[in-house]
Amino acid sequence: MKIIDLTLDIYDGMPTPPCDWHPRTEITILGRLGLEGRMSRKITLGSHTGTHVDGSIHVLKDGLSVDQLSLETLVGRARLIDMSHKGPLGGITKNELQRYDIGEGERIVIRTDWSDKWDTQDYFSRRPYIESEAIEWLAGRISLLGLDICAPGDPRKSFLVLGVPPPDHLPLLQNGVILVEYLTNLRAVTQETFTLIALPLKVRGSDGAPARVIAIED
Question: Which terminal residue of the chain, N or C, has fewer Cβ atoms less than 10 Å from its own Cβ?
Fold first, then answer.
């Protein structure tokens, strides 16, 4: 058995999406061994900080919060789809995904290796993406989508329209697909199918939460 960590580190000042509703991550030491006799920290982070899981309430008024998501979906066999040949702003098409004969209810993890660009501005603005038609197709088939990018859709399109849910998230979350974003280290996964464990913090009523995500190979 081999366990592979697919989770970004959380650290002070780590990159966050360039918008006001995703707060800066701040970690402050409060307790000190030399004074209080123990270490403790105040950690300020957003519900979509680093590697995280989205609840459908992220874009749907009557959706599920992250603590209501099915553990049976968050843990189980997943299939890795290698799209690491996609360069900056490379679109993943419906036809490409259909070649994998994706079955009903599968957990799918798409590898682009764009996590190599973590801690650069290109990570957000020039990432590969899934084309809209392909997102719609996936939304009607799968149970979970894992990505090593920050969002499914084309970064050149404006998803930051006030009052309008992001169109790359909406089809997936409307159809009950659990979205796991900001994965890393997918090149270390050598098997096409593996056991995925993606457990978000159990934050009551939250639209999302950071998660520790691992792959287990047989």
Answer: N
Beta pairing class for 208-217 and 129-130: unpaired
**Rounded Cα gap, residues 119 and 122, in angstroms:** 9
Element (H, E) at 147: strand 144-147
Side-chain-side CA neighbours of 9 within 13 Å: the count stands at 7
d(C-alpha 55, C-alpha 79), whole Å: 21
Give the DSSP letter of residue 188: G
pLDDT for 157 equals 83
Encoded tokens for 20: 């006001």
CATH architecture of structural domain 2-6+48-217: 3-Layer(bba) Sandwich (3.50)
DSSP string, 10-48: P-TT----SSTTSPPPEEEEEE-TTTTSS-EEEEE--TT
Q: List pLDDT tens digits, range 50-89.
A: 999 999 999 999 999 999 999 999 999 999 999 999 999 9
Domain boundaries, the chain: 2-6+48-217
Q: What pLDDT does residue 42 have?
A: 95
